[in-house]
Every structure is written in C-alpha cells, then in structure tokens.
Design brief:
Helix content is 44%, strand content 13%. The chain is built from eleven helices and six strands. A hairpin with a 4-residue loop joins β3 and β4. It is elongated. The relative contact order is 0.12.
C-alpha cells in the first residue's frame, strides 16, 4: 500500500478519505430514487425537464442540469422523436377556407380554438389511422376516432364527438390542413350547423398546424416506436390508453407542469 501511494503521489489521508466516501451511504440515494420513480411512472416517456418539474412539485430544490446528470448516470433515457407524417392532401382542390388561425396557438378559454389532423400507423401489413381533435386552450384531446381507412367518416366521427361537447354559445375556430376530408361538403356542413368557423393551413405548410403535429410526434415516440405491436387491435387498445394518460397525467411545461385535465380544472375553478 505504502509503495503504491508513493508511486501515485497520493497522501494516505486523501486515499482513506475517498475510500470512506465510496464505502459510505450515497447522499443522493433518496433523490435518485425519486428520479427513478418519476421516470418509471411516466412509462419511460419523460426527459429531464419533465422529471425536474415533477421533482419541484414534490418539494425538491435542484437544477435541471443536475437532474440530467443523474438520469444519465442512472441510464434513464428518453429517446428523441423521429418525424414521419401522413398527408391527406390529394392535389389541387382549391382553397375552401382561409388560414384564420395564423399560428396563434394559444386560447384564453376552452372551446375557442380546435385543431385536427390524421396520422397513420403501420402494423405488419395493416394500416391504422387516428383522427383527434385538440383544444388549444389546454392541448387536451377532446375527441378522436380510430379506423382502418383515412376516409371522410373517420374525420367526421371525431368532429361530431367534439361538437357534442359544446355548450350553448360556444362556436370554436376549427383548424386543419387541406386534406380531402376537410374540403368535403359534409365536413363543412357539420361545422356550419354548429356555428363553428373553418380555418385551413396553407398548402404543404405543416407549421400552420404545428401543435397537432407535435402531439403526433410525442405519440409516435412515446408509444408506437417503443413497442412492437402484434396487430391493429393491440395498437388500438394502446392508443386508447395513451390518450387517456396524455390527457390526465402527462405533464406539460407549457401548462405550468400540469396535465391538460389538471390545467383545465384549475383554470375553471380560479
């Protein structure tokens, strides 16, 4: 031992000090346990920012960079999203409605601004399509339809369900891309009968509907890209579960660390 210390140029006191630290209890054991619990409860879907937000709600005072370092040391990895989108645009069909939303993605009350789109999933040789309607007030998915075809009825079904939630006097702006479903007279008639106002993105400009695209990105990475689904029925069940979790539990930094449902409840009782 003495020879090794001499070769290393390390004082005995320094060596035994660090040895005792390594053998002693981990001063951050409780914090690491909290980080791990939050990450596992999120089903491995939270990055360090959301984990930090949950820790703050629990009373921990810690920097985001420290959380990032702890997650790396614990090998708690939230994967980066991969972008892949489905397009329902089918050539020149004229401009049915102007872009009234104009990327103003905030709303000061529920049922003022809705956005919608369709996304595609491949399960073996099967295709599955999801058509949600999101309220921009709290980014909540207020209705959705799942089907094997991206047809007009899929989009209409989710819209009818959303419109059924409206109270008297509520006439939302409903924004979509220029997909064939949203240019169809039956879609427009549903909006007209409800007194809703139609808005559409400019041609081939996904940024005009960025919030719903962002939701699809999270959905694909946090659910679809992590699991190998045996068939469309298994994916359908998982989509129901994910949307419920997204609405009721998944916290958002844009919603002050609350889930969409929590944010709406807090806003309405304030």
């Amino acid at each position: 031992m003495e020879i090794l210390l001499d070769v290393a140029g390390l004082p005995r006191s320094t060596f035994f000090y660090h040895q005792s630290r390594l053998q002693g209890p981990d001063p951050r054991a409780s914090l690491k346990a909290a980080v791990t619990e939050i990450f596992e409860k999120s089903r491995a879907r939270y990055g360090h920012r959301r984990v930090h937000a949950e820790l703050t709600k629990q009373g921990w005072k810690i920097a985001k960079k420290t959380v990032l370092k702890l997650m790396r040391s614990l090998r708690l990895v939230c994967k980066v999203r991969r972008k892949k989108r489905y397009s329902s645009y089918q050539g020149e069909q004229g401009v049915v409605a102007p872009n009234l939303l104009k990327r103003q993605f905030d709303a000061d009350a529920p049922n003022k601004k809705w956005v919608t789109d369709v996304t595609e999933f491949s399960v073996g040789d099967q295709k599955l399509y999801l058509s949600p309607v999101m309220d921009l007030f709290d980014r909540q998915i207020i209705s959705y339809a799942i089907g094997s075809s991206p047809n007009l009825e899929l989009a209409n079904a989710s819209l009818r369900e959303a419109l059924a939630t409206l109270k008297d006097g509520q006439k939302p702006l409903v924004h979509s891309d220029q997909g064939f479903q949203y240019q169809h007279r039956l879609w427009r008639l549903l909006l007209q009968n409800a007194g809703a106002v139609q808005s559409m993105s400019r041609k081939a400009n996904c940024y005009d509907n960025a919030v719903i695209e962002n939701f699809f990105g999270h959905l694909k990475e946090e659910l679809f890209n992590r699991v190998r689904f045996l068939n469309a029925d298994a994916l359908t069940a998982a989509l129901h579960d994910y949307i419920h979790w997204y609405n009721t539990e998944r916290i958002s930094t844009k919603l002050n660390g609350l889930s969409p449902v929590q944010y709406r409840v807090k806003a309405l009782v304030a």
